[in-house]
Design brief:
The protein has two domains: 194 residues, NAD(P)-binding Rossmann-like Domain (Rossmann fold), CATH 3.40.50.720; 200 residues, Rossmann fold, CATH 3.40.50.720. It has 18 helices and 14 strands. The termini are far apart.
């Protein structure tokens, strides 16, 4: 089967390259000619560990083009993997790119094409896409499926190849058979494939992300209580996570969640609840708390600087919203650093991958090539993203390089005894 992937963003590119690893010929389409030119030169527009190697290993089955019509007309399966950003004002998912792709596909698709929605879309979108295609090409048979992604940035290849589950929403047997063939390599690895309705598939995606965001927000609030009562959030999280009903993942206190999924998906899920008069009050509160959390962390840093933060220097280690990615979308750093700078603080920052992406968003920040440059003469050093390179700092060297003596660890990557033994004043989360 020939696969065409519409969109070469994070989801489309990772999915397309992984399908080529399964042995399928894959054509990736994007309207951005510069991005396609770079891909044809072997250059990826995103950083994802292992993805460049996988692309090179399967390059004979991969093609990248801006020729939408040719790519779709020769495809047996067309995935829509375009962005669905938050709509201004109401927080709902902006579906204009999904609708536009559906119209273009309808005009050139061959009969019996299977169209698969891979983009994260609110419940009811598959029905809207079906109506659009039927209006554009009345009488032409096609199948439509919903196949939401559950890829974590930084470990996306592993998530695709060894998923907890694959969710597929279908209404006809042809689509089901085609998706079974596409995912057969996973079936042979005993990965659960859940076939359901398109509406259920849409709801599963949002409900899953909302629940995980809720776990993060919960443990962040527990961390605040630990700080006030002498508790240790890491010990609390580990103990409650040993309960199989709870689980230990996403129980790591920090500066709030960011990235391309959780912030926009929680907003969209809450907006959907309001739309259907079924308010998702827990999730609405999660979004509010998470935004406040980032401001709270900026205040924590300012307090560490003392009564007169203006004119002092902070060295920030980590800019991306999480390690192993260069994604800056809704990263806590984009809220925290401007608050510091507004207070007159000079900020120097380092990130192993995200400096180029971060620079346009943080024009007042001095971007550093090395950790040493970042911590040199800093009054306070802040660990904002838990990259492995920051887990093995020579803390004695950090103390000597700094002007001040305070290390603010917003990811709890060190036991308190280690920085304190180096003479550092150590401030962490929930301990």
């Amino acid at each position: 089967m020939n696969i065409t992937m519409i969109g070469t963003g994070y989801v489309g590119l990772v999915s397309g390259i992984c399908f080529s690893e399964f042995g399928f010929p894959v054509t990736c389409v994007d309207l951005d000619a510069g991005k396609i030119d770079a891909l044809n030169q072997g250059e990826l527009p995103i950083y994802e560990p292992g993805l460049e190697r996988l692309m090179q290993e399967n390059i004979e089955r991969l093609s990248f083009t801006t020729d939408f019509d040719n790519a779709v007309s020769n495809a047996d399966v067309v995935f829509i993997a375009v962005g669905t950003p938050s709509r201004r004002g109401d927080g709902e998912a902006d579906l204009q790119y999904v609708h536009a792709a559906a119209r273009q596909i309808a005009r050139v698709m061959k009969p019996n094409t299977v169209i698969v929605l891979k983009s994260t879309v609110v419940v009811g979108t598959n029905a809207e896409v079906r109506d659009i295609i039927e209006q554009e090409r009345p009488g032409v048979p096609f199948s439509l499926a919903s196949n939401p992604e559950f890829l974590r940035e930084g470990s996306a290849i592993e998530d695709f190849m060894r998923p907890d589950r694959v969710v597929v929403g279908v209404t006809d047997e042809h689509a089901k058979e085609v998706l079974q063939k596409l995912y057969r390599p996973l079936y042979l690895r005993d990965a659960p494939i859940v076939f359901t309705t398109p509406a259920n598939a849409e709801l599963i995606k949002y409900a899953a992300n909302a629940f995980l965001a809720m776990k993060i927000t919960f443990i962040n609030e527990v961390a605040d209580l630990c700080e006030k009562t002498g508790g240790d959030v890491q010990q609390v999280a580990r103990a409650i996570g040993l309960d199989n009903r709870i689980g230990g993942k996403f129980l790591h206190a920090g500066p709030g969640f960011g990235g391309s999924c959780f912030p926009k998906d929680t907003r969209a899920f809450a907006a959907t609840g309001r739309k259907y008069n079924a308010p998702q009050r827990l999730i609405e509160t999660v979004s509010e708390i998470n935004e406040a959390r980032k401001i709270q962390m900026a205040d924590k840093i300012l307090q560490a600087l003392g009564d007169q933060p203006s004119g002092k220097t902070v060295g920030v280690l980590g800019l991306a919203f999480k390690p192993n990615t260069d994604d800056m979308r809704e990263a806590p750093s984009l809220t925290i650093i401007p608050i510091l700078e507004k207070a007159g603080v000079q900020v120097k920052a380092h990130d192993p991958q995200a400096v180029e992406e971060a620079t346009p968003h943080l024009p007042g920040t001095t971007m550093c090539e090395t950790v040493d440059e970042t911590i040199g003469n800093a009054d306070v050093v802040v660990i904002l993203t838990e990259w492995n390179v920051y887990r093995a700092l020579d803390l004695n060297h950090v103390k000597k390089a700094m002007r001040g003596d305070t290390l603010v660890d917003l990811r709890n990557i060190y036991p308190a005894s280690e920085p304190e033994a180096a003479g550092l004043r150590y401030l962490s989360i929930g301990r």
